[in-house]
Every structure is written in structure tokens, then in C-alpha cells.
Design a protein that fits this description.
The chain has 10 helices and 10 strands. By secondary structure, it is an alpha/beta fold. α3 packs across α4, α3 runs parallel beside α5 and α4 packs across α5. The protein binds adenosine-5'-triphosphate and magnesium ion.
Length: about 290
């Protein structure tokens, strides 16, 4: 067990001092033995707040968390006894808004910042910056550019490269593919999936794209009004009737499969999670 939340609630402070309850009694366990998880839920449901707890950027108002053996509760915040630095190195978090993460003069310095901060040598950090920028689909020429003069999608890629270069054990990405063109989105998802499969790392992705959830995730978490309302298999989730109440879209593949069944009376039974599987099934039933 790498991350365990027990009855975690979190309240943002507000000007009127009433506070805003963004997390409401969340219990969850994330293993670091190679899970691929998606976290979904409507806008404002608490997804970003939840993942900012996972690397101790935010700490609970109530309840407690155990992150890689470090216990953090509402009373035990960071001090000389509880160190959060190792957590930040091992649990890499890519922010929803890349602007929060980019601040150096050049892309290269920005990507090198994390590794250097955690004790990696200058030359090794440079090497990792070059590798990471290529992994996210940008060429070396970007290294000398200012991160502030990049497009939204390029900034997003640079912020992802900065976290990849730290080589974290657990990779958490807050809407990493929003604002990217479809080809760029698919290529990056493949990168995350490769990191998960070839290095056996746990990857958690926040997304509003139900196709990503259905095609890639073995486990999906659903947030609603600060509470975790579902934790399990995506196939079971989308076969449930209550997803309408949770304002979730139905993945394209399920809609297509349903239309083929009801309009053409084709037998599309079995688990079909992507285009390739759908085409294979079509070939079988039409031959
Ligand atoms: N710094 C803050 N101060 C006060 N309230 C906040 C702050 N950040 C977020 N909130 C509130 O907490 C709730 C949860 O926000 P959060 O950003 O976690 O949602 P989210 O599920 O990530 O949404 P989205 O899909 O739009 O990114 C929202 O109602 C939001 O308005
Ligand atoms: Mg968010």
C-alpha cells in the first residue's frame, strides 16, 4: 500500500470564514505496484483537491493519510519531524494548469529543476531533460525556448516532461490531455500507458474524456460533491443506471455497440473497449 486515505475531509478557507468543504470523508487506497487509474467527476467535484493531497501539497482538515509510510493528519503537518520532500519526489504530480509549474527562463532549466532539487547532478539532469522533452513529443530545439512563449499544448507537454524527469514511482496527471489535438492526446496517452506497463508504475489520470477511461483504465474513481462515490471496474460503472445522475458521458464505443445491437440486431456481446476490438467483433458477426 503506497497511499491510504482514512476519512479525509478538506475545507478551503473562505473570506467569510465559513469555509468550503471540497473533500468529504474520502477513504481510498492506491497501490504502487503498477495500477492504471482514472479519476473522473463533474467540474468542482474535488478531483484536483484530492490529488493535491496525494503528494501532500494540501493536508487534511479532518482524517489522516499515509503516503509511502509517512503519516499525515490534520494535526501532524510538515515540521522537522514530518518531512514531505521524499513524498514530493516519489509521487510526481502534473498540475491541471501548467502555468503553476513553469517558472524558469528556459524549458531546459524548467525540466532540470525537479531532478536537481532532489539531488541529481547537473549533467544527469541535462540528460534527463533531453530525454523527457522527446518523450512528450517535442524536439530538442524547445529546450532553449522560454516556457512562457509556448502554446497551451506545448506548455502542457513541458510541464509533463518536468515531472517525468524526476522519475517518480507514482505519476499523477491532472487533465494532462485537455487542450491537445486528438493525435497529440492519443500519443501522450500511449506514453503514460507505456510508463505504466514497461516500468510497472502506478499512473493516475484525471480526465473528462470517458473514452480514455473506458479504453485504458482497469480502475476508475468517481468524485461527486467532494465524496468518492465509485471505486472499481469501468465496465461495471458504465453498465450502471446511476451514471446519468453523476453527469458522466457514455463512452463512444458503448454508444456504437448499443446502436449496432438495437438498429441492426448484431450480437455485440463481450467486452469491447476500443475500436480494434469493435472491428474484430464486427468481422466475426458479419462473416
Ligand atoms: N483555492 C480555493 N479556494 C476556495 N475554494 C476552492 C479553491 N480551489 C478549489 N475550490 C473549490 O473546491 C471545489 C473543488 O475544486 P477542485 O478544483 O478540486 O474541482 P475539480 O473536480 O478538479 O474540478 P475541474 O474538473 O473543474 O478541474 C470547487 O467547488 C472549487 O470551487
Ligand atoms: Mg481540476
Amino acid at each position: 500500500m503506497a497511499i491510504k486515505f482514512e476519512h479525509v475531509s478538506f475545507q478551503y478557507k473562505s473570506i467569510d470564514n465559513k469555509g468550503y468543504l471540497a473533500l468529504d470523508d474520502v477513504n481510498v487506497v492506491i497501490e504502487n505496484t503498477g495500477e492504471f487509474i482514472t479519476l473522473i467527476g463533474e467540474t468542482g467535484s474535488g478531483k484536483s483537491t484530492l490529488v493535491q493531497h496525494m503528494n501532500a501539497l494540501l493536508t487534511p482538515s479532518k482524517g489522516s493519510m499515509n503516503i509511502l509510510g509517512v503519516k499525515i493528519s490534520s494535526t501532524a503537518k510538515e515540521n522537522k519531524d514530518v518531512q514531505f520532500n521524499p513524498i514530493r519526489k516519489q509521487v510526481g504530480l502534473v498540475f491541471q494548469f501548467p502555468e503553476y509549474q513553469l517558472f524558469e527562463e528556459t524549458v531546459e532549466k524548467d525540466i532540470m529543476f525537479g531532478p536537481k532539487n532532489f539531488g541529481v547532478s547537473e549533467s544527469e539532469a541535462k540528460k534527463r531533460a533531453r530525454e523527457a522533452i522527446n518523450i512528450v513529443g517535442l524536439d530538442d530545439s524547445y529546450l532553449s525556448r522560454s516556457p512562457f512563449n509556448l502554446s497551451g499544448g506545448e506548455k502542457k507537454r513541458v510541464s509533463i516532461a518536468g515531472i517525468l524527469a524526476m522519475e517518480p514511482d507514482i505519476l499523477i496527471l491532472d487533465e494532462p490531455t485537455s487542450g491537445l489535438d486528438p493525435r497529440g492526446r492519443d500519443a501522450l496517452l500511449e506514453v503514460f500507458y507505456q510508463i505504466h506497463t514497461s516500468l510497472n508504475k502506478t499512473v493516475l489520470i484525471i480526465t473528462h474524456d470517458m473514452n480514455t477511461v473506458y479504453e485504458y483504465a482497469k480502475r476508475v474513481l468517481v468524485m461527486r460533491e467532494g465524496a468518492l462515490v465509485y471505486d472499481g471496474d469501468p465496465v461495471k460503472l458504465f453498465s450502471r443506471k446511476n451514471i446519468d445522475n453523476w453527469n458522466l458521458d457514455v463512452p463512444d464505443i458503448i454508444q456504437l455497440k448499443d446502436a449496432l445491437e438495437s438498429n441492426f440486431h448484431l450480437d455485440m456481446s463481450g467486452t469491447i473497449r476500443n475500436k480494434k476490438a469493435l472491428l474484430k467483433r464486427l468481422e466475426e458477426v458479419l462473416s
